[in-house]
Automatic annotation (TrEMBL):
Organism lineage: Bacteria, Pseudomonadati, Acidobacteriota, Terriglobia, Terriglobales
Biological source species: Alloacidobacterium dinghuense
Signal peptide region: 1-21
Keyword presence, Signal: yes
Entry keyword set: Coiled coil, Signal
Keyword Signal: yes
Family per record: Belongs to the outer membrane factor (OMF) (TC 1.B.17) family.
InterPro entries to which the protein is assigned, alphabetical: MdtP/NodT-like (IPR010131), OMP_efflux (IPR003423)
Record's protein name: TolC family protein
GO MF term set: efflux transmembrane transporter activity
Any one Pfam family match given in the protein's UniProt record, by short name: OEP
Length: 420
């Protein structure tokens, strides 16, 4: 009986996880940095946004080029609607060929080009937003997967320990030193662990599918094995993180670029109120016995004030909206940074409490109760209670560690700083 309890204690003190050992044998852990680089290179959403930005960059040459020239051919008949009627007997009939060109008011094309260039700048800034969003999703999946792989090892380890406890309780019951109820209660707890293991496998399968989608990998490719989840101390202060938002946050950069675009749009809309011109020249050929004609034309187009004023008002309202959007996003991002900072610092205190207080104390209490039970000085229900408390504390520690690392990963996305 004593040897069985000794084996139980040995199992509790074991650190290695059988499941993780098996997975490591199949595939070595993949660093998070490697997956981030793969996502940046392979994710189709990032690639699509890059091509959209390149397409936007081609707008400036289009809007800064003069309108297409026009080539005109005329045939003027006299005395009959038939083609060339009167051409040989009237000096009014002629065949004419000419060309014309529209000339926008000076500065219009240049301002249109500025609007197009700044729109392209906004598109390029949006690439960073998408890249950061994809990277944030990869980090979240990776950390969650690391947590599940780590806690799955804890669950398998404790399942083995509980199997040994059930054997101990059965042995005690067979010699009249225990109750059948103890065995049943231990089996119920084992069933709960098996259920948690099943749920872990389900969640891991879903995460693997989502992560492979972000990486643009085939869904039948080998599953990803993560590195161990370890605590990363937060070395930057709250004010330092907040100061990084204006210069490094990709959404703020997009909003700032949108304001610059709307500034150019307002200037362009005002310039659109100026008149445009058109020049043309035509050569009119009559029969050789008559003199030829030469025609020069100059046209002016005056934009209607009502339409121009509406365009200016629209551009100005869009500019105000862009500024308000920037202010709203800045406040939102600053708030999120502060929330993640509070989360990370609170979790660091909790992790220290778990690591230095709760887990060691709970483990010591469990070991003492287990030894007393082996000597028939303690009830099995107390052993089971301390076993469950110790398991829950280990799982809570892993969850807190996940929350801490997730908060740091999110802070990286918001501030552009390297924290992990």
């Amino acid at each position: 009986m004593k040897s069985l309890s000794t084996l139980t204690i040995t199992l509790v003190l074991a650190v290695a996880s059988p499941v993780l050992a098996q997975e490591a044998a199949v595939s070595s852990p993949t660093p998070l940095t490697q997956l981030l680089a793969e996502a940046e290179a392979s994710n189709p959403q990032i690639s699509a946004s890059d091509h959209e930005a390149r397409a936007a960059r081609q707008m400036a040459p289009q809007v800064t080029t003069l309108p297409d020239p026009k080539l005109t051919y005329q045939q003027f008949s006299v005395g009959s609607p038939k083609p060339f009627a009167g051409y040989t007997n009237s000096d009014f009939a002629y065949i004419g060929i000419g060309a014309s060109q529209e000339l926008p008011y000076p500065g219009k094309l240049r301002l249109r080009g500025q609007v197009a260039d700044r729109d392209a700048n906004t598109k390029e800034a949006e690439i960073d937003v998408i890249e950061v969003g994809i990277a944030d999703a990869v980090k979240a999946d990776y950390l969650q997967l690391a947590y599940l792989q780590q806690t799955l090892g804890i669950l398998h380890q404790n399942e083995a320990v509980l199997d040994q406890l059930i054997q101990d309780a059965t042995a005690h019951y067979q010699v009249g030193q225990g109750m059948q109820q103890d065995i049943l209660e231990a089996q119920v707890n084992r069933t709960k662990i098996v259920r948690e293991i099943t749920m872990h496998h389900q969640q891991m399968g879903q995460l693997q599918a989502h992560l492979k989608g972000l990486l643009n990998r085939d869904q039948t490719s080998p599953d990803i094995v993560t590195e161990d989840l370890n605590e990363t101390p937060l070395k930057l202060r709250s004010d330092e993180l907040l100061a990084l938002i204006k210069n490094n946050n990709p959404q703020i950069q997009v909003d700032a670029s949108a304001i610059q675009k709307q500034d150019a749009q307002v200037a362009s809309a005002k310039r659109e109120g100026k008149p445009d011109f058109e020049v043309g020249y035509m050569y009119q050929n009559t029969d050789r016995k008559y003199r030829d004609y030469y025609e020069f034309t100059f046209n002016v187009r005056f934009p209607r004030k009502k339409r121009v004023n509406a365009e200016i008002a629209e551009a100005q309202e869009e500019l105000i909206a862009s500024r308000q959007t920037l202010d709203a996003h800045l406040a939102q991002q600053l708030s999120q940074v502060q929330q993640d900072y509070v989360q990370a610092t609170r979790d660091e205190d909790l992790l220290k409490e778990y690591r230095e207080g709760l887990v060691p104390q709970s483990d010591a209490a469990y070991q003492a109760t287990l030894s007393a039970y082996a000597s028939s000085k303690e009830q099995f229900t107390h052993v089971l209670l301390y076993f469950t408390d110790l398991l829950n504390l280990k799982l809570e520690y892993a969850q807190t560690l996940l929350d801490h690392e997730t908060a740091l990963a999110h802070l990286e996305s918001l501030t552009g700083a390297t924290l992990r």
